[in-house]
Amino acid sequence: TSPAPRSPAQRTQSMATELDDRCPICLDSWEEPSHLMPCLHRFCYRCILRWAQSKPECPLCKRRIASIVSITQCAGSPLIC
Ligand SMILES: [Zn+2]
Ligand SMILES: [Zn+2]
Prior knowledge:
- The protein is of the alpha+beta class.
- It has a domain at 30-75: Herpes Virus-1 (2-Layer Sandwich), CATH 3.30.40.
- It has helices at residues 8-20, 45-54, 71-76, and strands at 33-37, 42-44, 67-70.
- A 3-stranded antiparallel beta sheet has the order 2-1-3.
- The radius of gyration is 16 Å and the shape is elongated.
- It starts with 7 loop residues before the first helix and ends in a 5-residue tail after the last helix.
- The structure holds zinc ion (ZN) (2 copies).
- One zinc ion binds at residues 23, 25-26, 28, 43-44, 47.
């Protein structure tokens, strides 16, 4: 009796998917999704705004936040994106 081998790769992939459809700060669905410059990580606009007021760095990669860009705004102006 040998134990069935498990693949850890599948687990990593499902985590990445989860990150993509939830805001990493509130762990809820996106409310006005926005991305950070220059690292392009995504958060709710309200979540990252509040975070940046206490700590001006990305919660995921710790890079300094240069600016917060609302994706909703970008959709209306393709010239900017
Ligand atoms: Zn959020
Ligand atoms: Zn980042």
